[in-house]
Design goal:
With 144 residues, the protein is an alpha+beta fold. The chain has a domain of 98 residues: Double Stranded RNA Binding Domain (2-Layer Sandwich). 36% of the residues lie in helices and 17% in strands. The strands form two sheets. The protein has a three-stranded antiparallel sheet, with helices on one face. A two-stranded antiparallel ribbon has the order 1-2. The radius of gyration is 28 Å and the shape is elongated. The N and C termini lie far apart (91 Å). 15% of the residues are buried. This is Ribosome-associated protein. InterPro entries: Pep_chain_release_fac_I.
């Protein structure tokens, strides 16, 4: 039907043999056509067992805890946005490529910072001020 690999980047491509497509009937509006034509696409890609993905990318994608990833590590993408099977198939592949692309870059390490001395002093002054306001509301110091 299409090319023999789904290109993510110039250096990373997923072979057609690793993608499993199933065509099912779409839900929702569409009249009689939706009841008789299987235009929706269910694209499955085995993240955990794919030899095409580099190990760090695989780990980052599996760690995402995305609801589309099964317990076995298979990513399932349902595409039924369009009326034609070919366009839904293309949409599913684009979404798979976008998902894999998010795992290509490693997140930056967070550098722990401490509040400055001035920031601590401002915070404590604000707390002290609020306490004074609240203490002023009590009826202890009020003389009638």
């Amino acid at each position: 039907m299409g090319s023999d690999a789904l290109e993510i980047t110039p250096t990373l491509a997923i072979p057609e043999t690793e993608l499993v497509e199933r065509f099912v009937r779409a839900s929702g509006a569409g009249g009689q056509n939706v009841n008789k034509v299987s235009t929706a696409v269910e694209l499955r890609f085995d993240l955990a067992g794919s030899p095409s993905l580099p190990e760090p990318v695989r780990e980052r994608l599996l760690a995402k805890r995305d609801r589309r990833i099964t317990d076995e590590g298979v990513l399932v993408i349902d595409a039924q946005r369009f009326r034609t099977q070919d366009r839904n198939r293309q949409d599913a592949r684009e979404r798979l490529a976008a998902f894999i692309a998010t795992g290509l870059t490693a997140p930056k390490k967070r550098i722990a910072t401490k509040p400055s001395r001035a920031a601590k002093a401002r915070r404590l002054d604000a707390k002290r001020g609020r306490g004074e306001i609240k203490r002023g509301r009590s009826s202890k110091g009020v003389i009638d």
